[in-house]
Write the structure tokens for this entry.
Amino acid sequence: MKRLPALARAAAAILLGIVLGLGLVRARRSWLRHHRDRRSATASAANRDGGTGPLIAGRILDRQGRPIAAAKIALSPERRGSGGESPETVTDAKGRFSVAAGPGPWRLTVSAAGFRSRQVRAIEAPAEGIELELLRSLSLSGVVRSGGKPAAGVTLELSTGDAVRTARSGPDGAFGFDEVAEGAHALRATRGDQAAYLDQVVVGGAGAPITVELARAGGLIGRLRDQAGGAIAGGEVTLAEAAAAPLPRRAKSGADGSFVFPSVLPGSYLVSARAPGYLAGEARTVRMPQKGPALSLELERGATVVGQVVDEAGNPVRGAMLEVSGEGQGGAPIAVSAELAGAPSSARVETSGELGVMRGPIPFPPAMPLAFAPAQASAGAAEKSFVTDAHGAFALAGLPPGKLVVAASHPDFARGACDPIEVAAGGRATVRIVLQHGREISGRVVDERGDPLSGAELLGNGLTLAVSGAGGEFR
């Protein structure tokens, strides 16, 4: 009789082993099915997109986090003249996509009916787990009133993030904008000595027409001068409600340096100026209505660097991108590029990876250097001046004075730079940059455990050559 409990325990152990064994078998089968389905989906995507190789995959969602089906995914080579195929696919019912891609970098473009298209640049394969949000393309309508009555002939400006749209109110005061991205936008209305400004017009809510009520406004006048008191013609003066306001106004200075902003509402504003060959001025605070004499803005003449970019044989290199780094007066670090050239302020931080860094062959101790934007007539002109022409020539005006280095980069060459040069305010220097035909290097950056590190900068001779992607990959 004493043996019965022992037999019962043995039977229970056997039964438990059978149950656990069956559970492990089911778990293994489930695991195998999951990976078989995943491999099948990967192979299907690769076959559908016309090739095999590392995947670029992810999901496309709307602003509420819901999947967008049938969105078109298109990849195009980021490098100019690289040729090759441009894979395309569409998202499934759950918003998922998967594209087999070769060596990058790639530019990913997403478009879907009823949504604003979106681009993501410099993607290296493999890159899985991408999640992109698309904004709906909607309409905004409303009516402009003055003293409670419809106001006709009113000019309306709408900031859409990437551009400024304009419209004009009709005889009944009505106006409308089509294909506006959902979200909050800024709206300005002007007519003679009346104006209105709304900084939070929400598109995508109830969808009801908005009402814009005009109020009394006045003019802001001023003059743009150099340090000697001489007039600066053709300068650009910017008036904004606040720093980084979405709808700044701009005016050109005349032959006598004068400028005017009509239809300005009472309140506090930031005004700044820039002109070709001059350093961009610091923003100043002004109040409306204007009292006393005309506003006087003063700019300091900058340095100019001209030169040529050539290859090892002395042939001109067309389309090379230029950047300037160095040390300004008082030891302040300088970074100037085409992206910063369109900035309205005189000092900004250039970021790379997770920290702000100084790009260029001269390292500086501060982790967050100042980046001085040269003053150009327009953002387009600024971008053009930072690219060499058919003769490999360039001219960069309005640079901060100091010890400068000009670096050049081109997809077909290893990055190069000139020797440091000392340039005074109003001075001029000539440089020559020789680029060497380089070789492509690719790899991954990992930590001591072998886990990938994203955002790591790879340096060569003090220059940033690449930044690692989400999987630690670089090229």
